[in-house]
Specification:
Strand content: under 5%
Low-confidence stretches: none
Mean pLDDT: 80
Number of domains: 1
Helix content: 40-55%
Order of helices and strands: HHH
Radius of gyration: 28 Å
Length: about 120
Amino acid sequence: MNPRKLSNKRGFTFVEIMIVVAIISLVVAIALPNLIKAKEKVMANTCIDNLKQIAGAKDLYRLHEGVDAGDVSDLVMMEYIQWEPECPAGPQTTYIIGDKNSVPKCPNAVTGDLPDHQF
C-alpha cells in the first residue's frame, strides 16, 4: 500500500495560516488608529452637544423665571435640567454652568486637556 493514498486529509499548511494571520494583523494595524480618532471625535461632539443643551436650558430658565441677572447654577434643581450631565471623555467631570452672561464650559477644555471640547 502506498502511504499517500491512505492519507486523504486536506488541510492548511503552516505557511498558509501564517499568511492569513499576517493579513489580519495588517488590517488591524491600519484600522485601529482610525477607530481611536473616531471615538475621540464622537466624545468631543457629545460634549459640545451637552454644552449646547445647557446653554438652551439657561435661556429657557431666564425666559420663564424672568431672571435678568445673577447665578443660574440652580438649573439642576429646576425642571430645565433633570440631572447634571458629565463630559464623556473624563470620569465625573461635570460642566461649569456659570452665570447668565457666561457660556457653559467643559472642565477638560478649561484645563487644556481637551481643547476641542468647547463651542
